[in-house]
Amino acid sequence: MDKIVILSDGDSSDELQKYLSSLTHDQLTSVINNGALKGKKVGAMMKGILKGSPPTSTEGSGRRLLVYEHCIPLCESGDLQAEVAADIIGLLMLETHTLPGPSLAKLASLFVEAIKVGKMGSGKSLELFPTVLTALSACEALSYGKGELSGEEYKKQLINSLCSSRWDPQCVIHLTTMFRDVPLSSEELQFVVEKVLRMFTKLDLQEIPPLVYQLLLLSAKGCKKQVLNGIICYFKDQDVRQEEEQKHGESLDLEVQSIPQDQLRHVEGTAILHIVFAIRLDHELGREFLKIFKTSDGDLCPFSVALFLSVARIQRYEEQVFDLLKGVIIKSFKDEQLQQGSKFLQDLLPGHCSVAQMILDTVKNSVFGWDHVTQGLVQLGFFLMDAFGPKPGPFGKTTEGSATVARTPNQQACKLGGQVLLQGFKMHEPIRGEILDQVLNRLVTKTASPVNHYLDLFSDIVVSAPMILLESSSKVTETFDHLSYLPLTTVQGLLKAIQPLLKVSTSLKDALILVLRKAMFSSQLDGRKSAVTGFLLLLKNFKVLGSLASSQSSQAISSSQIQVDVHARYNSAANEAFCLEILSSLRRCLGQQADVRLMLYEGFYDVLRRNSQLASSIMQTLLSQLRRYYEPEQDLLPPVKLEPSITALGDQVYLQEPLAHLVSCTVHCLLWLQNMRRSANPNADDSDGEEEDEGEGYQSELQTILESMTRRMVKSELEDFELDKSAEFSTASSVGVKNNIYAVLVMGVYEILMEYNFIKANYSKSCFQELVELFNRYHKLAEILKEKSGKGRVPSNKSPRSLLSSGFISTLLTVLFRDSAQSREEALSVLRSSGEFVRYAVTVAVQKIQQLEETGHTDGPDGQNADRTFRFLCDMTSVLMWRYTNIPSVVEDAGKKEKRSSLSLLCLEGLLRIFTTCQQRYPDRMAQLLSTMDISEDDAEPDEGNVTEMNFFYIRQFQRALFTQLSGDKEEFNSKEAQLLVSILSVLSRQLKPSSQQFVQMIRWTVKICKETSFEDSAFSKSLLSLLFNLHVLYKSPVSLLLELCQDIHSQLGDIDPSVEVEKQSHFAIVNSKTATTGALLVLSLVDRVLDEVDWLIARKKSQTSSDRSGSGEVTQTAGQQDPIEKALTLQLGTLLTALNELVQTTLLPGTCTITLLRELSRTYTTLTTLVKYYIQVCASQPGALPARFEKLVKLSGSHLTPQCYSFITHAQSGEFSGGDDKKKKKRNDGNAAGSAKLLRETKAVPNVIFSIEQYEKYLITLSKKSKVNLMQYMKLSTSRDFRINRATLDAALQEQDDSQETNESQEAAETHEPHQKRRKQ
Known about the structure:
By secondary structure, this protein is mostly helical. Helices cover 69% and strands 1% of the residues. Helix 21 packs parallel to helix 23. It is flat, with a radius of gyration of 43 Å. Residues 1-52 form the FANCI solenoid 1 cap domain.
């Protein structure tokens, strides 16, 4: 070895060559081995050997090859030091280009063989391979087998055989790294990328991130889309496997998971970091990444969502990513909604995976150190909540009471945003501050739009993580400063949400009290209302020791994870002082505006129930306030002073004191206290004597006042209040306004006294007679008010909101209708005999239910308590149901009959409202509601366990009632009642599962009724057909039903060609001459729905074919086996065209019906055009015959529908513009603005149809060329655009013109206008 070094250092290379020639191969290799192992002067020795082997001589090049062949395995063996191996490879790389072609080919094959047998474990010598390949591809020609190949081709063969052989998992990363240095054509690169992606599954999880990194570097050469797709698909599969293992693992007790979850998540996190890093450096890769998701129609998985959110941190992609995600999410919800609403789509397509679930999974996965994803999650959450939150109504009004269930796609997307933020808040500490900041900022700044969704989120955050929130209580305190400027609903929501924290954080409580005190003196009315709200909330939640633990105090908002002992000795004393101080602040409100006082009166009852120790203080306040308006002189009438309760400002009169609410609050508080005392009395000790006396003092005084008021209110005539029939009630004058206010106050007082006396009466007859007297006074005043306020305008039946409490109403109705106790019989007969009183009770009940439906709560005590209001609904249901089903509709007395039926109708309306309310606000408690309705005992009671059975039991009850209605005489048919019954049936049928037996029975029954009922009542037929359609789409595709209905309408309304006799068909008796037009409009709305589904399916197929085309696998299909979706599409459209063909030949009334039909026709042609474009796309990728069904469809459209369309247009235009009789002509000549607007609308519909037909034909021509099938043979060219002159019409018009010298505008413009002028010129 030394000799070689010395000789190579010398000048004469001949000696060196001689010496090397004298060594045998074995000696040479052992020299190299020794030198390499010792590691000394190995570089110099190698240089010497190469120097003494000139590539020009055969011997020299042979020796060089030997050196290469020996050194490659030597470096790979792992016996050498790393630096030595690197030196050797470096030297060899420099000399590679000197090797002749055959040697290079031999070397390359050596590498390939080594890789195949897995000898390239360390990958050291692989660095040499790219140099060998590069040198190879530069060769002119190489012998290969028996022939010759160019170097480029030879390289291609090598790479091909390499990629199709087995790789040792250990060397995958080395090989990928190596290929980065090999010049590859795009085809070769694709081979390599596919091979590496296939190897993913063979590798250990830990080796995936470095491989991903190398692949991304390799993607700089091309194949970006393939690389990204491959990585995402791999992780998607791993996630699915891991999830399945978890599911099965629980049942199988597997000790070892093949994919440990935490390890997989960490690997995914690292892979995401690598990809994002690569995208930052290579914008082409970023564009490719976004393109994948634009084309693949949102084929997301938790991994790709996380990747998306990480990419969003790169500023240039942020907007695009969130817009894409927003689109995908809303599309997913819309698709889901469309599929849920249609059996046709459900049968065609399997349920798709929910994007919402994936996003929530991403949140769950981000726990494993995915900090780069969390920021994106926060942005996404707020992005969704901002974009899809509730919008302000007209004039900036916010809709009251958010419905509990997210129904529309927008609501679902907003809810998803909230869930993402809530889960993120729970899991990640670093983002908590930001989430809280942003939520509170939005609550403060978004004053113009509703913020219910943010309030809900904030409330959830407080409940789920109260202690975390206390750490950032300064942020909450900052928000308090804005309280007096925020809308009242926001303040209520915010305080309700924050209430659990006040019990544990004194600083928060103190800050809030300071702010509320300031707000008390705010110049804004809303600010003062906010202060009252806040103070009342505090009073409710800081209990004073000794307060009666009433069961009602477990209200929803006090539920919290914080359990603090507020009843400790010190606390309760402090609480008492604190509460009394607040009460003294609240007393100041009694001198403020009516609105502020009203809030106070509505809040006191709740405070008292939760904090009964404050009773004497509250009652004294109410009593002193009541004394101001009470007339103590027993002989004076009326007992209340109305003068002080109003105030005048200029010539305006305002309500100053809501007197009725004051009395109401006093009565409810008094009754509740007496009730509690009574129940607590048996165990009371004598030690509380003084307090008892004090309590008795105000109690007895109040009782005296109320009894005296009752007595004197019964005696008072309307004149005593200056309200009699002659009084003025118009809201235009100040006197009228004053009288209106007085009337409402007096009516309110009457109502409260009725409630008080009913409860005090304890079923005594004389008290009930007094109660009826009170009611008669009330009724008289209500009638006058109704009559007077209705004058001059449409009579307004809207009575002021009743002040009766919902609890009292349910008790009252129950005893009126259901109480059969002998002892009470006599007293109750007094109330029952007053028909007006019974009607009034039912009306108030319906009014309360309506309020609950619209706002989610009712007025009066317990109105805000969800459990109480639900109990009220249950009681109402059973009473109204009993009343409706048990008292027969036909009552002998004709005078009573009208009142009776309206009472039945009221009950039905109440039931309908109850069911709708329950579905909206208590969706999961429907079964509980139904189980309280115990109807007639002879029916077999349904098993409570089986909800569907129970639901169907009630459906049958209402079906029976409707059947009775329909089987009576036409004169006795009550349309309103029948419509209400149908509405109730449609609400209840929503509870049935479409797959259940009961649902099928329901459909059959509805079809039977539609076929047999022939009442000429369009409103009823409309509701019944709507029910039929809504059920039918959940059962199967509705096109066959459409066809039958269209045939019925055609035969009822007759043909546009008078000479054609339409064959009489009647599938559905409900369609008759009176109801056919209504039916036609409904049918057209269903056509619209079918077209929606067809459009959606075509769009889906289109995106599938485009993504298939961009993927490598071409989808081929023979014409014989047509795709099931395409087949279903074609069949749907075929039946639809036949149905429209019937309608187009029908003489529909001009106006809405005709325009709607024209609109649907133009939409149908647009859909057909879309389908044609789809087949053009298919033909471009796979030329072949079109499906026979599609050809039939084109034939049907061309030979049946289009010609009929043109004749219908002609008919419609002649009907539209030639007025018919003289009266119409005169009206036309008046030419008012509304008429011209309508004309414009009507004239627009026709060109639209013609345009869509022509577009359809245009694309058919393109398709004919592409598919080599002549589709235009079925089309007849139109004349509808031609300039038409109708000779007969023209002569008649000219004749008329000669007779009367005025032009007639009502002839059809297109046909006659220009000929007029020509004739005149002559």
